[in-house]
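Hey everyone, long-time lurker, first post.

I ran two proteins through the pipeline my lab uses and got sequence/structure pairs for each. Pasting them in order. The first:
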Amino acid sequence: MLKNVVIPHSYTLIKRGKTSLLLKEEYKDILLRQGIENVEGFINKRKEKATYLAGRTSHPSIPINGDTRMVIRRYSHGGLFRKFTRNLYLFGSRSFQELALTEEIRSRGIPTIQPVVAIHQSTFFSFYRAYLLSLEISHSRDLIQFFKDLNTHPSRTALSLKRKIIRSAALLLRQFHQAGFYHGDLQLKNILVADGRVFLIDFDRSYRKRTLSIKERIDNLLRLNRSAEKWVRLGLPITWRDRLRFFSIYAGDDIEIRAGMKKAFRTYSLRTIMHRIGWAFGM
């Protein structure tokens, strides 16, 4: 199942019993000395020093060397599968694939996390558990928390910062798409802000092609828009002007993408209206 694993430059594949690890050379020795192959034991020994980051499940962030902290992500199912399989997967090597893609994204100058190790633990038959460990981006907040924090002290400075981050996020996503990458879970939680910079994270089920079609780019944008709409309904201070500004900056002078957006959002808006009518009449 790991025969087709891509090993990026500066990584080493190590097997310890039923556990396979794809380790970044720089951190290999220290992590192996600390027993990283038993990742749950590795986490438990550092519980007192751990902080937890929000996600589908909480992600522990632990110190590994002085002030350097590492975020540990356990892969887990969402939706119906979560109840039955929880953190077990069948076939494939999700954490290895995501690490390789993340390194490819980094190589294109797109700001994201620095992976440290991907772990694949075989259980029974072809089932496995997966983990991805990466360096923590210090003082980062996802876009949801960023917008909430700005709203607590409204001012001209806060508005200017909000517009700056919206612009940076739009340009970053355009760069991401123009490089041929499609994000499998593009939502506000997967865009981080730290020290005025914007980062894309979480590339599970993402992929890269030579060129993304207009439809793929629009589909990704609509996914992000649905995430924004969800949080707006929960009180997040994002206005329709904010979203219009984002999409306008993303499109730039590209006539084709502007036409595609206009057509897609016309259909999207009509579908949303019909859904709301259905809800009003109990359909």
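...and the second, right after it:
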Amino acid sequence: MLENHFAPWSIYIWVKFMLQNRNILLGLGILIVGCGGSKTSLNVDNNLSSANHTVEQKNAPSKLTIHKAAETGVSTETIPIYTYKIKHAWPHDKQAFTQGLIYQDGILWESTGQYGSSSLRKVELKTGRVLQKISVPEEYFAEGMTLFRGKVFQLTWQSQRGFIYDPTTFQKLGEFVYNNEGWGLTHDGESLIMSDGTNQIRYLDPTTFQTTRKVSIFERGTPVMRLNELEFIRGEIYANIWETNRIVRIDPKSGKILAWIDLTGLLGDKERTGAEDVLNGIAYDEKGQRLFVTGKLWPKLFEIELVKK
């Protein structure tokens, strides 16, 4: 009996309480739901914002990287590669350790190296016959050479000393000094241009022989080391890479690599005796637009035509 009377009464009290306190309960519900909902919503928004920010950070290029890339010559641009076609082959002195080579007025001019046998010489193209020669003192290892403003300039390897000659008599006119090793030498009509075995090309004032500027050579951020014999050809610098079969073509202003030349197999196996050294020596006939190359102790000198791969 008590249970039957108590149940309706309890329901009545509960309903009355709810009606009287509906505003309080409503506010409390909103607060509970709102707190939970807001926190959830805030977390989601923050997570999305954080995720988006992370994605943007990963996808966005780094200014530091771009700046560094620009400094080191990083580029995704494809560098052309050339091979060759042999047009002519002429005899070359097998005792000539070729360090520098130019073509002027129908004659090859050659600087040869090694202690005790370094020289400056004029050579007949078709026969390889030495027409004129002067020996370099035994304590010097001769390197690159060029003919500029009516004088012949010749480098030495580690002596930090160069020689100046009269191109007709080969009489020594003077000497000059520099603070690095001497490897290759050419000119652009205004400055002497030399390599020192690193990835740098130096421009020298032809009167004071002071370095006026330097250009560093990179391939996709990696220094191109051991730049050796040089030749300035139609606004570009061609450089042998020591101990390789490659020549690199360089923009002299920016140092950008314009192309590679692969001369693998130029001196055939049947033409080798085993005494030959590496590819070295680039000369250009500006009037005839002929490109000549040879190597240290090679029995032949070649006129080649470049063929793009």
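Reply from user beta_strand_b:
Welcome! Quick read of the second one: The two ends are 108 Å apart (CA to CA). The first helix runs from residue 2 to 20.
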